[in-house]
Amino acid sequence: KNEVEQSPQNLTAQEGEFITINCSYSVGISALHWLQQHPGGGIVSLFMLSSGKKKHGRLIATINIQEKHSSLHITASHPRDSAVYICAVRPYYKLIFGTGTRLQVFP
Amino acid sequence: GAVVSQHPSRVICKSGTSVKIECRSLDFQATTMFWYRQFPKQSLMLMATSNEGSKATYEQGVEKDKFLINHASLTLSTLTVTSAHPEDSSFYICSARDTRDTEAFFGQGTRLTVV
Question: Which residues contact A13 (CB under 8 A, 6 or more apart)?
């Protein structure tokens, strides 16, 4: 069993839909990252969380440390949100990555 | 926000040659840099961790003589793929952590093709 599990693996949506991507992990962590990887390969760090909730534009990330679970929400999704979203947890100095959620938003 | 510049973005080389990939932190000092490899449709796999001024720590199964890592300054780390083979073809990406250790910043990645 992977230490970081993401669901769903693939997700398609119509423009404007509310999207949720989930991440569960099985290790103790000091932080959790949500990353976005576009088709070209470059990775952008969206959030780093250690507790609670963060919001940036249409993106919201939450984490429940007790339940070892985090969610990434995208409100009013847009085709430019199409990317792979990766959850990564940090038990100590290095990151452990989930396998990613491939999101496609259609106009 | 902080920027990590990785160069080159794409490289094609012949088997047996060496390729150097650079990772620079442009507006912060990176005490620690990480090098990852990513196979198609798979997640990132940590290859090694480098700390400025000291030897890199390689993950199990990664050949340190093949993947040479140098972190000579707080803003630059390099990965050299020596005697490249077609099976080394992959996407390589670096990540840097600042001295406050509050975030992880990623380079744009390098797609290496060995022919």
Answer: A19, A77, A103, A104, A105, A106
